[in-house]
Amino acid sequence: MDLKSKGEIKKLIADNNLQIAIDSLFSIFDYHKNIGNNEIDSYYDNFILISLRFKNVVKEISLNLIDNESANISKSKIAFSILELINPIPDRIFLINRQNSINNGVKKDFEYDIFLSFASKDLNFAKSVCQQLQNYGYSIFFSEENLKEKNGKSFFTEIEKSLMKSKNFLLLCTNNSMNSGWVRAEYETYFNEIYIKDESNRHLFILCDADFDKLKLPLLLKRFQISKNINDLIKTISNRL
Questions:
Q1: What is the 3-state secondary structure (H, E, C) of 198-235?
Q2: How distant, in Å, are the alpha carbons of 51, 107, 116, 172, 176 from that of 141?
């Protein structure tokens, strides 16, 4: 599934490729509906009406019911309506530029897209980040949930296995996590044992909360791009994966 950016869709409209633009928007809207993201609901009904208008124009052209001038005027109005529709849609809705391996029947090399590292005191923050990433189709190792399935097994062993099975690592950087020996062990293990051995394929992402002073970041982490909020993070991840 090739999901296009807002800019790419606007270019399709400018080039008068309305059918491709409409098909691309259907792919984006359907993607978000399938993952339960209701953020696009307010736009979807209007888009259906626009697509029906375009379908009727195409039918009228094929039946020679309207001349070229009238057809071009109708298409121009539809193009303007599509632009009016997509302009207020947040850019992050279009930032799904990777193929969903499950939907495309491709075997994943990793069990998780992202290993989420956080301090237990930041559980609510971590849950919110995890949910938003899952809404974009990413599979997340979230210890609060995933380790419940591993009762009776070594916690340390399961964390180590999950780090290896996760293609990327996301550190929620807060005052709590920077004072957590366990979080430090996780990011140091990922960096030393996984990331530096495969920098072309693995990534380490950092999301700082609003109260954290980035100057307090350990030297090890200062080399990585830092996201200030979830929208920046999703854009960074989408550009890398």
A1: CCCCCEEEEEECCCCCHHHCCCCCCCCCEECCHHHHHH
A2: 39, 18, 6, 13, 20
> Comparing C-alpha atoms, which of 80, 35, 15, 88 is closest to residue 54?
80
- Measure the CA dihedral 44/6/168/180, to 10°: -80
Q: Does 73 share its domain with 154? A: no
Q: 153 and 194: one domain?
A: yes
The pLDDT, as a whole number, for residue 186 is 93
What would the two tokens of residue 102 be?
A: 């499950």
Q: How far apart are CA 169 and CA 171, in angstroms?
A: 7
Spatial CA neighbour of 169 closest among 124, 212, 207, 123: 207
Domain boundaries, position 89: 6-94
Cβ–Cβ under 8 Å, residues 190 and 115:
yes
Q: The pTM is what? A: 0.60
How confident is the chain (241 residues) per 10-residue block, as mean pLDDT? 75 90 88 79 89 93 91 94 91 63 49 93 93 84 68 68 92 94 93 90 92 87 89 81 67
Tokens of 90: 């947040």
CB atoms inside a 10 Å sphere around CB 103: 11
Same-domain pairing of 81 and 150: no
- Please name which of 194, 183, 199 lies closest in space to residue 207, comparing C-alpha atoms: 183
